[in-house]
Sequence to fold (113 residues):
Amino acid sequence: MAMENRYALLLKPGAHYDSGEDEGGRNSQDYAAFLLSKDGGGNKQKCLTVVDLVAKKRQDDKEYDRRLNIIEDHMWQYKQQERELKRLEGDIIKNQREVRRSLRDYENGKRMY
Fold:
């Protein structure tokens, strides 16, 4: 039989696949069961049902929310750090003005005497 007909055999109960080799008498239902099994079809992952998919979606949503909260926390901490740095920068500029003013007053007082 041709390769394109092998899936058509799965639809017919009791149909036999004859590849010209000794298949051990497997019928189409055995072949379908083999494909769905853990060892068959090259798919080592179990077949997911709707319930599994819904549970996985819920778990993925929880994981997404958890990661989003972590990112938001990091952003908030970064914003707080920036605010603190701005305050420190303002304090430094204020101190620089005071030092310059004191230096000017000192130099002006020195010239007078």
User: Anything to note?
Assistant: The chain has a mean pLDDT of 80. DSSP finds three helices and no strands in the chain. Residues 50-112 form the longest helix (63 residues).
